[in-house]
Amino acid sequence: HQSVTGHLKRDSNPRTTREQDLEDVIQKSKKIGLKAIVAVAEDAGEFDKIIQICERFPGFVFPCLGVHPVQGSPPQQERGATLQDLDAALPLIEKYKDHLVAIGEVGLDFTPRIVNTDKGKEEQRQVLIQQAGIAKRLDLPLNVHSRSAGRPTIQLLKEQGVQKALLHAFDGKPSVAMEGVKAGYFFSIPPSIIRSEQQKLVQQLPLENICLETDSPALGPEKQVRNEPQNITIAAEYIAKVKGVPLETVMETTTQNALKLFPRLKLLL
Q: For this protein, what is any one GO molecular function term (predicted)?
């Protein structure tokens, strides 16, 4: 497989966190042909660790720091992001700004168990707006989460003048996604697409607006099984089948899309 870009997030479940096999995960990724992995943060508490992983695998793992719209992980109760969460992250984003390939994972998550008040939704919006401003100032793309908030997220990005954005694991209607396509945004498809209700999304999205992701350790081909970057081939093969194009075409086009989306990645590679 040619140059394709993976997507690696922290593992919030201590039962599946395996520091000792990180080297093995990376080596398997390289073996199937990955040229780069974007390691995506969710909260300030993991920024240093992500930078350390990127320093451990220079030229292969690249950092993306931001405040996710959902904060807290088991055994803590999950909740919507607040401006206090962002305040904790800002000094570290500034500290590492020259190393970043994107700001993220950011976005909106209006799942009722996460946020069920207008006040909570507005605070998420403000956290996203401020991070969109940071991305513009640093000339970086946004890596965007938009669960149960597809249309509001795309509208906000457009209102804020965001030009480079990746909407990952988009769960909105294909017609809403096409509003993002018109704005020039990219959509990344994970291996879970083979068991997802979002298969119509792949049919409708132009290949020129598609990237590949794994979202490891989540969104694997099987539920409740740890995902790994090497599974990116599953997403590529599925897209090729749905689009009726050669696998090589999907790999080449999504690689070029990733390099357009992450200009610093192109320079660093």
A: hydrolase activity, acting on ester bonds
